[in-house]
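Why show two proteins at once? Because comparison is the fastest way to build intuition. When a single record is shown, students tend to memorize it. When two are placed side by side, the eye starts asking what differs. So, the first record is below.
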Amino acid sequence: MERVEALVIGAGPAGLMAAEALSDAGRAVVVAEAMPSIGRKLLMAGKSGLNLTRDQPFGDFLASYAEAAEPLRPMLSAFGPQQVRDWAGGLGQPVFTGSTGRVFPRAMKASPLLRAWAARLGQGGVSLRRRWRWTGWEGAAARFDTPEGPMAMQAGVTVLALGGASWSRLGSDGAWAGILAAEGIPIAPFRPANAGLCIGWSAHMQAQFGQPLKGVRMSAGGLESRGEAVISARGLEGGGIYALSRALREGAPLRLDLLPDWTRDKVAGKLARPRGRQSLANHLRRALRLDPVKTALLMEFGRPLPDDAGALAARIKGLDLVHRGLGPLDEAISTAGGVMWPALDGRLALRIRPDVFVAGEMLDWEAPTGGYLLTGCLATGRWAGRQAAAVPGRSA
């Protein structure tokens, strides 16, 4: 039985931030990670440019967390977009803001930031145990399967930061949910978030696979997006779709406005011009400047196309796409569901185990891509670590 002052289980962004907060408060910290290395999902996210946070008014930023905004408010107020920028700069990773307000490290990768972060944690005395998989508790002791066999660890305080239930090959397999549920802790079922949309294309759409869908307005269930997507063999992928994933997951139809910057009357006026001997596809291209991707979508879901210019304009401005719902849970960028808020106090401690804190994607919240996910993980990890460090008389 090893005895430690502070234990963090999970070495993703939330867990590492909790370890940093505990170490900064003078606690001796052990981080247990099931995978051979730390931050695997963070590194994967950084392959396409590490979106750390978002530069926008705090009220708008907070609203992106929907019904979880209020429970997350204190954490995001304490460590929000500006604090994330300052933190990255403190690791020697200056940031810049893109045209859409997304904030990236200048290196555009996660690996330099993660290396600097790991070095700082090591200098602070944080100890890392790799390939230590948490299997639950035995009384107050945490149990682990390790390369050396079963181990138990008695900790003064513990932070759980085991991630959600997507990308299991990177370590987030959601296996912890059964452990906590067996303890009587309420768990909201896992559901895909920020996931691709499945569509059963006809054969003529194969020519468009891999092509970007740009310059459209997408809407579903009261949500709107002007982001982009890519047409794949399975359906639609990309930030524009991810922003609508909650509504699409709940069965809302997807509607596209193929010409969002034109009024319906303007579209109808262009279509009313004589087309002569042109094919309809050429008429659409010349009159409306519809690119091949938009034209293909209109033919896929809009036929039979009406002859009346006004009716055709209405279809172009409101094209309904038939879909089959979101892709598999394990392929989603993030997950909804997790430890329900009533199971936690304001410190993010479990009510039935007040020396155990929960952070990151284990919590029941979701947010779109664009910096919200990572900021939420960092903020809740820091909050849980600082609150755990404030627990008096908990040295093991």
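Second record. Ask yourself what differs from the first in the token line.
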Amino acid sequence: MQFVEPSREYLAETLLAAGPGADTLCAGWRTQELAAHLYLREHNPRVGLGMVLKPWKKATEKAIAKLAAASSTPESFAALVEKFRAGPPKMSLFALKTVDHSANLSEFFVHTEDVRRATDRWAPRALDADYSEALWVELLKRAAILYRSVDLGIVLVNPEGPRHVAKRAPVSVAIIGDPGELLMHANGRTGQALVSFEGQPDAVTLLQTAEVGL
């Protein structure tokens, strides 16, 4: 659980360094939409519901767009990021350490990379071994859901040794990479994840064109 607060800090710094109007890997979102998303999911329960329940989706998108539009200048954007950096309100479920860890450890890593990797020049971070292991554990909890739409068996392979069968099927593909890279791939950032594949060529091609993530 000790990795969430530093991850929040690093994500805030990454957003500030990019500034408003910068591209991200989230389709249709610039940095101010991403910052609005991060802030609202912790501070507005109704908006948070729209991120997981379709009936609330339009209201959530509208709230994000409204806050993003109000955060398009360097000053207003920095103010929004600082509100996110300050963390959730005391009465929020996100203020509970177990919820914070479960909801934000992977979220903050992926969104940090959404900003970092949206540029032409980027390099993977050298992650602390314990942090990398924590990301691996979180990935295993969600892997079956994230690859549910793929019509293949999926085996996740960590170069450090662990393997995990995320989904069983007659034909499988192994996805090989460091935990952070596997997490990016599983969350649909397939073109920017530094992973390799082992399997039948047609199966690998199918995976590379499949819809992955939520």
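One difference worth noting in the second protein: Strands lie at 153-157, 163-167, 172-176, 196-198.
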